[in-house]
Amino acid sequence: MDGTPIDFVNYGLQGSDISEGRFPDGGVTRFFMPTATPQTNNIIPNTPPTLDPIASRVVHFGQTARFTATAADAEGAFQTLTFSLDPGFPAGASIDPSTGDFTWLANNFAPPSTNVITVRVTDNGTPPLSATRPVTITVLAALRVGAGIPTGGLLPLTFNTLSGQDYQVEYKDNLDDPDWIPLGSPVPGTGAILEVDADMTTQDQRFFRVVVP
Fold first, then answer.
1. Cα–Cα distance between 155 and 152 in angstroms, integer?
2. What is the secondary structure of 11-52 as a DSSP string?
3. How many domains are there within the chain?
4. Same domain, yes or no: 40 and 78
């Protein structure tokens, strides 16, 4: 014994009936605790996390539905949250356990279909507690592109749309070209069929596609 301290604590003004200690036991960080536990393990009562609301989605058949679930926890300074999907989610749907990033290629059911998916977030407290949120994903008809009869050198391209989504028409002059080129700016969907005119006055052929950015 040479008097070298193994461990020590510098603490400030203390409050009545409030314990201060390392949590979890042996951890580096100190916390105030509402329950004093002399001569036994430090305890901070666990409370369930909160999961933010998740807006409904409407997608085309064959389109990938995406969202990011976000959550918070009062004990977040020393706990970890994990995201999961409750049983009953469609095949191919997945959520990243740590980031809450959800993806699902919506090609499992013939459109139209309505799918209610339950997202769960769970903490690693004692005992573990969780919260859930339902999200509705509606799958409508696949995106279909049609071409009309050119008039004055303009080729009318038509495609069905969903309200609230943007659509970008792109083209190539040769399918072997490495990149697709945007034809104008993205156009907002209205829920109806839209038309975009392509200038063909200087082209004998051109290939088109419509993508959802």
1. 9
2. -----TT-EEEESSTT-S-EEEESS--TTS---------EE-
3. 3
4. no
Q: Which domain holds residue 34?
A: 1-45
pLDDT tens digit string along 31-85?
Answer: 666 566 666 666 667 889 999 999 999 999 999 999 999 999 988 777 899 999 9
31 and 107 in a common domain = no
Among 90, 120, 140, the domain-final residue is: 140
10 and 59 inside one domain:
no
Q: CA 113, 115, 117: angle at the middle one, nearest 5?
A: 170
Task: Determine if the pTM surpasses 0.85.
Answer: no
- Residue corresponding to tokens 């071409």: 147
Residues 134 and 172 in one domain: no
Place of tokens 């082209």: 203
What does residue 75 show for φ and ψ, rounded to 5 degrees?
-100, 25
Cα separation, 159 vs 152, in Å, equals 21
Report yes or no: 211 and 183 within 8 Å, Cβ to Cβ.
Answer: no
> Residues with Cβ < 8 Å from 201, sequence gap 6 or more?
153
Domain end residue (candidates: 94, 123, 140)? 140
